[in-house]
Amino acid sequence: MSSSMDVITQFLFHLVVYSIPLLYGTCGEIVVERSGSLDLGVEGTMAIGAIFGYLAGCSANSLFVGVLVAYIAGTLVGEVFALFTVTFQANQNVTGLTITTFGVALYFFMGNAMGEKWPVLTKADRMVKALDTIDIPLLSDIPVVGKAFFSHNILVYIGVLMAILLWFYFEKTRAGMRVRAVGENPAAADSLGINVAAKKYQHIMLGSGIMGIGGLYMGLNLGGTFEGSNCWINGYGWIAIALVIFANWSTARAILGTFVFGFFRTLAVYYGTLAKTFPKVLGWLDNIPSQFFSALPFIVTLVILIMDSVRKNKHSNEPAAIGVNYYREDR
Amino acid sequence: MRSILKKMLGVALAASLCLGAVACKKKDSKSDFKVGAIYINSQNDTSGYTYAHHKGITTAMEAAGLSVKDDLIIVDNVPEDDEAVRAAIDTLAGKGCKIIFGISFGYINAMDAAAKDYPDIIFSHGTGYLSNDTNFNNYFGRIYQARYLAGIAAGYKSLELGNNNIGYVSAYGTEYAETCSGINAFTLGCLSVNKDATVHVYELNTWGDIEKERQAAQILIDTYGCCVIAQHCDSAQPQLVAAEKGFFGCGYNSDMAVDAPSAHLTAPVWNWNVYYQLAIETARDDAKNFMSKVGNYYGGLKENFVDISPLTENVPAPAATAIATARELMVKGEWDVFSGVALSFDASGNMTKSDVALVTNDGTEIVAAGGASVEDGVITGSMNYFVAGVIQEQ
Predict the structure, then answer these.
(1) Mean predicted lDDT score pLDDT of chain A
(2) Which of A90-99, B187-196, B253-262, B305-314 has the lowest mean pLDDT?
(3) Is the pLDDT of residue B20 over 50?
(4) Is residue B2 part of a domain?
(5) Are B118 and B181 contained in the same domain?
(6) B139: which residues sit within 8 A by CB, 6+ positions away?
(7) A314 pLDDT band (50/70/90 cuts)?
(8) Closest to B14 (Cβ–Cβ): which among A98, A122, A222?
(9) Residue A183 is part of which domain span?
(10) Which whole number is the average pLDDT over A30-51?
(11) Is B304 domain-assigned?
(12) 3-state class of B201 per DSSP?
């Protein structure tokens, strides 16, 4: 049995490692929603990014190629979504759901088609090496939290950095403001000379590409095995959509939301260990049925959504034109 | 006009996106003996529970001279829901199946009811406990015997590493006799070699969460210092984790040396085809006497229905001798796992038998020293305690 401080470090480490895909999914969805589109295809987009990114990364034995292909695969899915919803004015919800169904099915189709030829992650040694943990100097030496927060693989750091950069983009730059204008009132943005369709295309594709990278992360984090009946994404895409509301459409707040949600997910895995390590303080955790812990992340999501709808109108940053297709000739 | 065209194009594209697969109608074959199967997951799976059964049925049919393509009718992805199972049974009955296999435990009530409505069809239910006298049986196996053998391999590995902590990732614990007897048998196997071994059990409370299976193995290694990770769950995640961290493990269901060659010792495996061939041939040749000839099937090492995958080179040498000795005793029916007689193996694999009571981890005596094995009904239905040596961690 490890020391109690080690257990806390391990708990926090797990929390970060298994929550990062949510951050990619949530940030991707925020980028899409900021331009005024509601994309329910996150799960499918992540699945497609995951499978193609993984297969490409393994065959090239390069993490960079894997990430690039995952991103490109995601943007292509985003392009399909944009083609339907922006150009053809199709219903966004239906198109998104179709993409989820299609994406997850394509994931299984590809996996099954590979069969025995499925690439083993450990054989792609350079890709595995590129995923080694990187200790951030000084910070990783801090007791307890150092190893938990500052000793991770490169995709974790990129995810957090991306969230901060996107926050800066939407809040502080002129280009980002223009995108928000499209999401709030496309007709007004149009009258100011902003190309609404182009902005929507760009950001749906950018956001979907980010989701694709999140999908690849999930696959790599699960050791790259194809399990015939379980998709790597495992519902993360849906949680990401809910987290967008929790994050109030801010990618910086998405970091917080990801870790709050991740805390409850990790608790479901760790409660027995925590109860044994801290019998006096946390021993009561063992008396709660495990099903409650499994349900907890979803109960928390539900509470957040209810709280959000109660305080709506006051502080919500929800883009006003979200989910509504913009048809120029209706102006 | 252009916008109408665009919309039509959009509809056409959407339709083509949605059409993932086109159903094909199967041709009628020459043979009139049809086998029906109801699967919990997809028939196209490449690993896991449904895959193992599908492979068993197809292997058995080929051995019995039937055509898998023409004579096997499958309804897959059927949830454990009475109405869904009934619909699948009606479909298979309508297509003329003479024997219907249902592989998942939760199909039990629907199959029980259908057996009364279709007296001419034989219903065969995997892992269940219901049956009747004419056309409804259940089948399962003494996988605990194979788990005991895997425990011996794990015990030798723990001795070699000088680490008495062994981990076990299990979908459930004492709630199901199947998982419970597996944990106990594995533990007794470990203890037969390393009497100081402790088996730390992590219960997932689900069958289908690969991420949790991975995290459980990480916790067992990181927090509890386990050096061998055994498992009773579907995916190879626990073995992958053991490999990543430089430790060892015993898989389940298939030879997981394929997934984690540097870590794997051996895995308890099922030879489902052994039963399926018996059932299919009896149903075809002598359906009237199916229940007297096959009945409720509970095969073990003796029937070659359960086994362990080949020992890898990660397994210390004396384990092979010890495993062969224990296997022979079980094949001959001279000894069984849950009895008042314990086997113990020394460093070179030599066995000694001694009378030791079978005791739970809270000190309750189950079988007195020298006593006979517990009844099969206990192993399949009512075992709800852990033996001494097991610690439930979550």
Answers:
(1) 91
(2) B253-262
(3) no
(4) no
(5) no
(6) B124, B125, B126, B127, B275, B279, B296, B297, B298
(7) low
(8) A98
(9) 20-234+318-330
(10) 96
(11) no
(12) strand
CB contact under 8 A, B14 and A95: yes
Question: Is the residue at B4 inside a domain?
Answer: no
Question: Do residue B334 and residue B195 come from a single domain?
Answer: yes
Host domain of residue B103: 34-141+271-299
The pLDDT assigned to A120 comes to: 87
Structural domain count, chain A: 1
Q: Is the pLDDT of residue B8 over 70?
A: no
List the CATH number of the domain containing B91: 3.40.50.2300
Flag if A14 and B44 touch (Cβ within 8 Å).
no
Q: Is B15 inside a domain boundary?
A: no
Q: B181 in contact with A at a CB cutoff of 8 Å?
A: no
Q: Does B163 touch chain A (CB under 8 A)?
A: no
Same domain as B383, residue B235: yes
Give a yes or no: residue A291 inside a domain. no
When the pLDDT of each residue in chain B is averaged and rounded to a whole number, the result is 91
pLDDT computed for residue B29 by the predictor: 45
Q: Is the pLDDT of residue A216 over 70?
A: yes
B93 shares a domain with B132: yes
HEC per residue, chain A = CCCHHHHHHHHHHHHHHHHHHHHHHHHHHHHHHHCCCCCCCHHHHHHHHHHHHHHHHHHHCCHHHHHHHHHHHHHHHHHHHHHHHHHCCCCHHHHHHHHHHHHHHHHHHHHHHHHHHCCCHHHCHHHHHHCCCEECCCHHHCCCHHHHHCEECHHHHHHHHHHHHHHHHHHHCHHHHHHHHHHHCHHHHHHCCCCHHHHHHHHHHHHHHHHHHHHHHHHHHCCCCCECCECCCCCHHHHHHHHHHHCCCCHHHHHHHHHHHHHHHHHHHHHHHHHHHCHHHHHHHHHCCHHHHHHHHHHHHHHHHHHHHHCCCCCCCCCCCCCCCCCHHHC
Q: Under an 8 A CB cutoff, do A228 and B212 touch?
A: no
User: Are residue B241 and residue B349 in the same domain, yes or no?
Assistant: yes
Q: Give the percent of chain B with pLDDT over 70.
A: 92
| Structural domain count of chain B | 2
Confidence check: pLDDT of B24 > 60: no
| Euclidean distance between CA atoms B106 and B115, whole angstroms | 15
d(CA B347, CA B193): 8
| ipTM confidence | 0.87
Q: Reply yes or no on whether the pLDDT at B16 is more than 90.
A: no
- Measure CB to CB from residue B240 to each of A225, A234, A273 and give the nearest one: A225
